[in-house]
Amino acid sequence: MKTILNIICNKKVKYSILILFLLFIYTSVCAISYVNGVSTDLSENIFRLHVIANSDTVEDQNLKYIVRDNVLEYMNSICKDVSNKEEAIAIANEHLNEFKEIAQNTIKENGYNYDVTVEIGNYPFPTKSYGDISFPSGYYDALRIKIGEASGQNWWCVMFPPLCFVDVSSGIVPNESKDIMKSDMSSEGYSLISEKDDSTISFKFKLIELFENVKILTANK
After folding, report:
1. Which of 1, 2, 60, 113 could pair with 54 as two cysteines, CB 3.0-4.6 Å apart?
2. How many domains does the chain have?
3. What number of other Cβ atoms are within 10 A of residue 104's Cβ?
4. What domain range is 108 assigned to?
5. 116-144 pLDDT, tens digit each
């Protein structure tokens, strides 16, 4: 015990512990700063769609997808010439009543009488891949559609740039969508979501996932 105390009291050991502590603080600050920067870059350029089914029954889940398809068809018709996220959100805000009407009519046409809530806000999303593009978990602006009790499984996609109709099985995102992301995002942000085979990028992606998941869990407590 005395030997351990002597080691701890040694000036060189004290200095080394201080250096390690300061290095840890510096690394943590750099990591948090990086995560906040990239997460902000992503959230400022992505507008998503979030549809929540009434329940997890097969019927309610199928209804969710029908509502999704009709909403997306309308969104694509009014946003076909949109070039940035702010414009997409502005148009969506102007047509919230139309989105609700489309969802409600779809539900009635399929033999149900669920209520519908349509809103735009900033919500937590899990990590999701669309073809060869992946978005880490975090908070994103989104159009949210809640069907009935909204206690069923969620469906997520990216409304702007338009990735909702990406054929995941092909693993390819249209070049037009990629060009929009490249022009609007920083090179670091775009590399993070598109370069899956780079070990450094993969590590950074996991780092952002870790910090954002902690943030989401903390917010939900």
Report:
1. 60
2. 1
3. 18
4. 41-220
5. 999 999 998 888 887 778 888 888 999 99
Domain membership flag for residue 20:
no
Where are any strands of DSSP class E within the chain?
Answer: 47-52, 116-125, 128-130, 133-135, 138-147, 154-160
Proportion of the chain in helix, strand, coil states, percent, rounded to 5: 55, 20, 25
Three-state SS at 137: coil
Give CA separation, 58 vs 53, 54, 71, 156, in Å. 10, 11, 20, 18
Q: pTM for the complete prediction?
A: 0.76
pLDDT tens digits for 163-205? 776 554 455 677 777 888 888 788 878 887 887 777 777 877 7
Model confidence pLDDT, tens digit, residues 51-86: 999 999 999 999 999 998 899 889 888 887 788 889
